[in-house]
Amino acid sequence: MAIINTGDFPIDPTTTTGTDLADRLNRLMAALESSHANTTRPAYLTAGAVWTQPQAGGGYKLFFYDGARDHQIGSVDAAGTAQFGGGTALAPEFSATATYATGAIIHDKASNAYLQAKNAVAAGPYNPGDWQPLTDVLGSLNVDLSVFVKKAGDTMAGALHLPSLTVNNIPVLAGPAFCAYPNAQSSGVTSSTFTKISFNTEEFDTANCYDTALSRFTPNVKGYYQVNAACQMAGSPSITSAFITLYKNGVRFRDGALLQNGAGVGNMSPVFSAVIYFNGTTDYVEMYGSITGTGALNFASGPNAVHFSASMVRGA
Amino acid sequence: MSLYDQIMKLYPEISPADFALDIGTIVLQNDSDGLGDYIKAWNHPTLPHPPFGQDPHSPPQKPATRK
C-alpha cells in the first residue's frame, strides 16, 4: 500500500525535523506514483480524486471518487487484460476552448440536446449555425453510427429515425416486405388436390423479391420473416373441407388452418401465419390450397378474400 | 375429366378417404404452372400407380429394355 499518513500535511516548519520531512515527502511520492494504491479509498482523498485498488490475485482496479461514491473506471487483471471505458459514455459538453472535427457529437447544456458538427469548428463561443440536431444526422446515416448513452433527464431532439441503417451491408431496419393477391378467380380446382394459389397482383413489394408470375417470395436478406396468407375457397354445390399450407423450396413446410364441415357449405376461408427462416439467396415460399368438395371448385379473387404477405422481423 | 375423377373411375374401390389430408394414401398436386394435376405420392397398399398422372416435372423414365 502506498498512501500518506494522517497528520503528514500540512507541514509545520517550526516543529518538523529534516528527517521527518523527508519521510513525509517520500510517502507522498509513493502515493502519487501509485495513484494512492490501497485496499480502500484513503480517507484524505476528496471529490475528484482517482485512486487504485490492488487485487488479491494480482492486478488493479481504478476508481474515481465523486465525494460520495467510488466509480470504477477500469481494471487490469493479473494476466494484464485491461477493461476500460465500460461504464457510461457521454457526449461531452460544448467547450468554447475546444476545437471539433466534422461530425463530432456534443451535448449542448443550454438546449439540453445532442448536436453534431456540420463542419470543423474552431475554438470560440457557441455558434448554433455550426451544429445540427443529431436526428438529422441519423436520418441519412448508413454507416459508422456513433452510439452514446444519454444522461437521465436529458431529452433528444425528436424521435430517432433510422431508415437506412445497415450492419454488414444488411439493412436491419428495412427488410423486404410484400403483399399480393389474385386479380381473378382460380376456377377448375380439383378436389383433394394440393393446388398452388395464384397471387398475381402486388399491393406492395419493397425489395422486388416477389415474383407475380410464379406467386413466389424469395427475400434477398437472410433472416426471419412473418408470413401470412388467407384464401377463400368455394364450391358449387358445396365443399366439406378447405386447407391452406406453405411450401418452402417446393416442399410442404408449414400447415395453416384445416376447416371442415361434414354437411357441406358454399365456402370456407382458411388462414396461415408463421415465422419462417430464409437464407436470403435461394429460399422461397409459395402457398398451396386444397379443397374437398363436389362440382365446380375455385379459389376466390381480390385482396380482401385472398392475400399473401410477408415481412422481415429480424436478421440472422 | 379431372385426375381425381380419372382415378376414381379407374379404381371404384378407392374412396375420398384415400385422399384425406395426412391420413390418405394418395396425394395429388397442381403447381399452377400449366402442366395440370399430377400424382405427387401414391402409397395405396393394394392398388398400383395408374398409368397416368405422372409428375410432369420429373425426367421421363427410360423404357424398359429387353435383355
In short:
The complex is a heterodimer of chains A (316) and B (67). Chain A has 316 residues and is mainly β.
Structure description:
The complex is a heterodimer of chains A (316) and B (67). Helix content of chain A is 7%, strand content 43%. In chain A, a hairpin with a 2-residue loop joins strand 8 and strand 9. By secondary structure, chain A is mainly beta. The longest helix of chain A has 16 residues. Chain B contains one helix and two strands. The longest helix of chain B has 8 residues. The chains are: A mainly beta (316), B alpha+beta (67). At the A-B interface, strand 12 and strand 20 of A face strand 1 of B. Strand 12 of chain A pairs parallel with strand 1 of chain B, so a sheet runs across the interface.
What strand order characterises the main sheet of chain B? 1-2
H-E string of chain A: HEEEEEEEHEEEEEEEEEEEEEE
**Helix content percent band of chain A:** under 10%
Distance between the termini of chain B: 38 Å
Please outline the major beta sheet of chain A: 5 strands, antiparallel
Fraction of residues in β-strands of chain B: 5-15%
Estimate the global geometry of chain A from the Cα principal axes: elongated
Unreliable segments of 5+ consecutive residues of chain B: none
Number of strands of chain B: 2
Number of helices of chain B: 1
Most residues in contact, chain pair and counts: A-B, 18 and 17 residues
Q: Main beta sheet of chain B, described?
A: 2 strands, antiparallel
**What is the structural class of chain A?**
mainly beta
The termini of chain A sit apart by 51 Å
